[in-house]
Each structure stands twice: as structure tokens, then as C-alpha cells.
TrEMBL record:
It comes from Nonomuraea marmarensis. This is TraR/DksA family transcriptional regulator. PROSITE patterns: ZF_DKSA_2. Keywords: Metal-binding, Zinc, Zinc-finger. Coiled coil: none annotated. A zinc finger (dksA C4-type) spans 78-102.
Amino acid sequence: MDVTTARERLEDMLVELDRSIGVLQGDPVAVREHSAADAGSDLTDADGAQAMLTVATAQRRAVIEAIKRVEEGVYGHCVDCGRPVPEGRLEARPEAARCVQCQGKRERRR
Ligand SMILES: [Zn+2]
């Protein structure tokens, strides 16, 4: 995947994420209105929205960092070991900052 394509995909993802985050942040109001009729389910809905918001916010940050790497000309290289991130991985996750090995190491450390 060339850098121009990667950048376009990242920018599309950013627009999409901004929209999702906006909807999710607006959700508590909708949930509260809804819960007047159905008091039992509001907590679960709010928790779900909060969890999705956390995921979307983290992904948004990753996408912004990936766009920065495109601008710095280092996109597609693992931020830890500097080796090229495999094409297939970037196709699946254009915002990926690390190769599979480094990502695995990082996740095990947590
Ligand atoms: Zn690596």
C-alpha cells in the first residue's frame, strides 16, 4: 500500500471516528430520555456507550499518530524496531504502529 493511499484511508477513518465519538458523546442524553420508560436498561446502555467511546478515542489517537508518521516519512515502519510493518497488517489496520512481534511484546507487558 503506498503512502498516499494509506493517508487517504487514515483520513477517512478519522472522519468516521469523529462522527462515532460525537454520536457516543451525545448518547447519555438519549439514554436518559429512553430510560424514563425503561429504567432497568439505562445503566447497561451507558456503560456500553462509554466502553465504545474509550475504544473509539484510543483508535482516533492511533490514527492521528499514523498520519503524523506519514508526514514525517516514517509511515509503515515499526516504531519500536524500525523494521517495515508487513503490507497485510497495514491493509487490515492502517493505523498500526508496530510489527506483529513488537505489538505482541507490548501486549504481554501489560
Ligand atoms: Zn517491531
